[in-house]
Amino acid sequence: MKVYGLVVDEETRCIHYASPLDVVAIRFKCCGKYYPCYKCHEEAEAHPIERWEKREWDTKAVLCGVCKHEMTIREYMGASACPHCGAPFNPGCAAHYPLYFQIDRDKPACQKFSP
After folding, report:
1. What is the DSSP letter of 74?
2. Cβ neighbours of residue 32 under 8 Å, at least 6 residues apart?
3. Mean pLDDT in residue range 89-111
4. What is the pTM for the complete model shown?
5. Under DSSP, is residue 101 helix (H, G, I), strand (E, B) or coil?
6. CA angle 73-79-80, nearest 5°?
7. Secondary structure (DSSP) of 9-44
């Protein structure tokens, strides 16, 4: 699986997020490409981020950088570690869920995000 962006290692860490727990890449709905983070997407693409709608959460769109297991969005959002290899995920990534995934139907899609 190809991961785009400013990836710094084989476990999908990037120049923006490179802790031992930053081992997830997201397949962006807007372009179908895996990126380690929204910053990598913004730097590489000329289009805005399109969020996965809640009805699409059974789509495989999250990649464990350690074992390359693809998870559904729902599976990822309910896990603190990869269900395949047990690699722990960064709990801080949940703060970015509203950028990638539709959390509340009443809120507009994010174009830019500042953590």
Report:
1. H
2. none
3. 80
4. 0.88
5. strand
6. 130
7. STT--BSS--STT--EEEE-TTT--EESSHHHHHHH
